[in-house]
């Protein structure tokens, strides 16, 4: 009986973590690296080193975790429910080979600038009526700015 209760509690705990919302508080991060490897940059270390751009990119990478349920951002990675976003900044909307875009997005004529991405991520259906991206809007402008900075940094790689 104790095993069943423990399993039920563990299941509820694990399922509680499956949400589009960010974690309600600080999340512990454990980084393991090989002896002698270069230090890993984090948002905290970037901010400490007075590098606001790196801190913004790190914040964007963390915020992109919600987007990663549908999108990839690595060069050459497969499309998911949404297209791979590697190199999106400066690219025409609907241009990823092998992804089935909505007619609305394909015919939008939009080039993904930071400003266009910002308004699209804020409210996809308002920016491109008829888009099939119905989830993932980010209301917080600071989070959108960070996600876009992260996407721009991926373009540079």
Structure, explained:
With 157 residues, the protein is mainly α. The protein has a single domain, classed as Cytochrome c-like domain (Cytochrome Bc1 Complex, Chain D, domain 2, Orthogonal Bundle). The protein is built from seven helices and no strands. The N terminus is likely disordered.
Reconstruct the topology from this structure.
Blueprint: H1 2-16, H2 43-48, H3 52-63, H4 103-106, H5 114-122, H6 124-127, H7 141-156
Helix pairs in contact: 3-7, 5-7
What's the quick description here?
This protein is mainly α and 157 residues long. The chain contains 7 helices and no strands.
Write out key terms for the chains shown.
Cytochrome Bc1 Complex, Chain D, domain 2; 7 helices; mainly alpha; about 160 residues; about 40% helix
- Which CATH top level class fits? Mainly Alpha
Sketch the major β-sheet. none
User: What is the helix fraction of residues, given as a range?
Assistant: 40-55%
Mean pLDDT: 77
- Binned strand content: under 5%
The structural class is mainly alpha
List the secondary-structure elements in sequence, H or E. HHHHHHH
Count of individual helical segments: 7
Predict the CATH topology: Cytochrome Bc1 Complex, Chain D, domain 2
Shape label: globular
- Poorly predicted segments: 1-33, 37-48
């Amino acid at each position: 009986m104790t095993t069943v209760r423990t399993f039920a509690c563990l299941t509820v705990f694990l399922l509680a973590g499956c949400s589009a919302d960010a974690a309600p508080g600080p999340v512990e991060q454990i980084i393991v690296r090989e002896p002698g490897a270069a230090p890993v940059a984090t948002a905290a270390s970037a901010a400490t080193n007075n590098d606001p751009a790196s801190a913004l990119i790190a914040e964007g990478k963390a915020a992109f975790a919600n987007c990663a349920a549908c999108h990839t951002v690595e060069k050459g990675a497969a499309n998911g429910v949404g297209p791979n976003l590697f190199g999106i900044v400066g690219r025409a909307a609907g241009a990823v080979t092998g992804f089935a875009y909505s007619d609305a997005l394909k015919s939008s004529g939009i080039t993904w600038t930071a400003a266009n991405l910002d308004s699209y991520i804020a409210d996809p259906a308002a920016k491109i009526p008829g888009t099939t991206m119905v989830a993932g809007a980010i209301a917080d402008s600071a989070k959108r700015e960070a996600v876009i900075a992260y996407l721009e940094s991926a373009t540079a790689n």
